[in-house]
Amino acid sequence: KPQSWEARAETYSLYGFTDMPSLHQRGTVVVTHGEGPYIVDVNGRRYLDANSGLWNMVAGFDHKGLIDAAKAQYERFPGYHAFFGRMSDQTVMLSEKLVEVSPFDSGRVFYTNSGSEANDTMVKMLWFLHAAEGKPQKRKILTRWNAYHGVTAVSASMTGKPYNSVFGLPLPGFVHLTCPHYWRYGEEGETEEQFVARLARELEETIQREGADTIAGFFAEPVMGAGGVIPPAKGYFQAILPILRKYDIPVISDEVICGFGRTGNTWGCVTYDFTPDAIISSKNLTAGFFPMGAVILGPELSKRLETAIEAIEEFPHGFTASGHPVGCAIALKAIDVVMNEGLAENVRRLAPRFEERLKHIAERPNIGEYRGIGFMWALEAVKDKASKTPFDGNLSVSERIANTCTDLGLICRPLGQSVVLCPPFILTEAQMDEMFDKLEKALDKVFAEVA
Ligand code: PLP
């Protein structure tokens, strides 16, 4: 039997989303607990987690108020469902709260255990709704390349990543549009305005080619997260929304990362000034203290679904733990903590400082671009700055940077040729300096090796 924690992990666990050559080189970090924005491993080493876990631990790893809210609810009522006309009081209160803090005047909420399931649920709602309204052919889903919407068969089909081909995905009927990343996909001599106009034309041509009456909905993250932190090109949502409205295609904002403060506002769609028909939430919803997702429907979709459900008598969908009372109690507390205990305010206050440091770091010849907003940013490594030529993929530059950071006690995430920083909202100025000092050391070491 293996002895060390690392060997035990590597003998019995199957790893998801883990670069195996990198793992074999570096080994597993087995984590026992956290302190504020830091995690601590079995060997007592502390790492500043500039990933917030997986973007979700926005209040850090030991927030007492959240732990107390969970404990109190476990003592009151540790578990229940939301089927057959029953649901917990916490579920009732959370739905009320989510509609209240949503950008909608009225609405309804449906719960899942994850962001992937929330996207799946939304797709099934749209299929159900269109069929009930006599348009069963309205089933295609529009998303964008580089989008990340999850890993279940439907949400992975929505995700615009080539790696899903190993599963034979996407499923038929999932159509991907150009990623709105001007720096990377803008053509020679094309202005940002012309780029956005081209993407709007592509959308309209796609709708006409596929047939508007075959399209169930359009899903977008306000800022693409796992695609490499890609804020939309300027004016993107303002250019595409009228086209989606013209063809009567519901617009869904996937706020699994952007929601509850990550961009500085409660919602990414508020930051980018567009109103969707529904919002997908997860991760920050419970500050990562409970696995939970939610579909928040705006007034029009709520009304139409109510009518459809009454006609069919039942919406045959839901999970055993949908609206779990402990998850709901934690979410109620998390919303309060982020919005009323200064966490979102801290993101707004420190975002300019974040950007200032990145701007300086990006003066290096091997950084092509820095991009982001609020507390979600990326640096993109390039072999040649002027031509934006990437490094040879075999060099695994971003993985090397992230591994070097890990050695220095900093967790950051390699995504393509980018390194992503999305720390917990509780980060202090001193912790931000620690993050950047370690990152700069790692960048200089790796660029000296590969450039
Ligand atoms: N949507 C977005 C925008 C995400 O970033 C993620 C996860 O990273 C998901 C959906 C899927 O969420 P989950 O991993 O909880 O299934």
Automatic annotation (TrEMBL):
One of its GO terms (molecular function) is adenosylmethionine-8-amino-7-oxononanoate transaminase activity. The keyword Transferase applies. Its cofactor is pyridoxal 5'-phosphate. It comes from the Bacteria. InterPro entries: Aminotrans_3, Aminotrans_3_PPA_site, PyrdxlP-dep_Trfase, PyrdxlP-dep_Trfase_major, PyrdxlP-dep_Trfase_small. Keywords: Aminotransferase, Pyridoxal phosphate, Transferase. Pfam families: Aminotran_3. GO terms for biological process: biotin biosynthetic process; gamma-aminobutyric acid metabolic process. PANTHER family: ADENOSYLMETHIONINE-8-AMINO-7-OXONONANOATE AMINOTRANSFERASE. Belongs to the class-III pyridoxal-phosphate-dependent aminotransferase family. This is Aspartate aminotransferase family protein.
